[in-house]
Amino acid sequence: MSKQVEFYFDFGSPYSYLAYKELPRVAQRTGAQIVWRPILLGGVFKATGNHSPAEIPAKGRWSKTDTARWSRRYGANLQQNPHFPVNTLALMRAAVGFQLQDEAAFHRYAETIFAAMWEQQRNLNDPAEIGAALTAAGFDARQVLAMIDDPAVKDALKQATEAAVARGVFGAPSFFVGDELFWGNDRLLFVEEALAA
C-alpha cells in the first residue's frame, strides 16, 4: 500500500492555500499520495470552540506578515484578499460535489477557487463573482449552482466536517499521516518526515 497524506482544507484559509501549493512537492519527494479532504472550517470552529486568527486583531495583523513570508518561501503568489473573511459554504459544497462526480474536475475546481480567492482577490462572498470565476475556467456556473443545492452534496460536506472533528481536527489546514495529526502549513516539515520514515 502506498504512503498517503490526508489534506483537510477550506478555501477561506490562506494557510490552506499555502499548503495546497507546497504539499504536492512534499508528496513528490516522498512518493506519497494526497487524499483531498474538503471540510467546512466554520463548522469545525463551531464544533471545537476554535476561532479564526482574523477575530483576534493582533494575530490577524501578524498573520498578514506571516502568510507573506510563507508565500515567498514556497514561491506562491498569495495576495491578501480584501473581502476576507469569506463564507465558504457554497464553495466547499461544490468541492465535495465535484469530488463525488469527477476527480479531474475537482482538481481543476480547487485550482480555480484557490486562485480566485488568494491570487486574484475576488469577492467570493458574491455569487456573481463565483460564477464569473467558474465561467472563466470553463465550468458551467448554473450546473455548479445546481450541484451546491443537491441534498446529497450538502449531507456529504456535513458528514466530512463531522468526521474531521471526530478525528481531532480543529483547524485548517490539517494533515494525517496514518493516525498522526499535523496542523498548519508550517508543520509540513513534520509531515514530510513522517512520510519519509
Automatic annotation (TrEMBL):
GO terms for biological process: glutathione metabolic process; naphthalene catabolic process. It comes from the Bacteria. SUPFAM superfamilies: Thioredoxin-like. Transmembrane segments: none annotated. The keyword Transferase applies. One of its GO terms (cellular component) is cytoplasm. Belongs to the GST superfamily. NadH family. This is 2-hydroxychromene-2-carboxylate isomerase. The lineage of its organism: Bacteria, Pseudomonadati, Pseudomonadota, Betaproteobacteria, Burkholderiales.
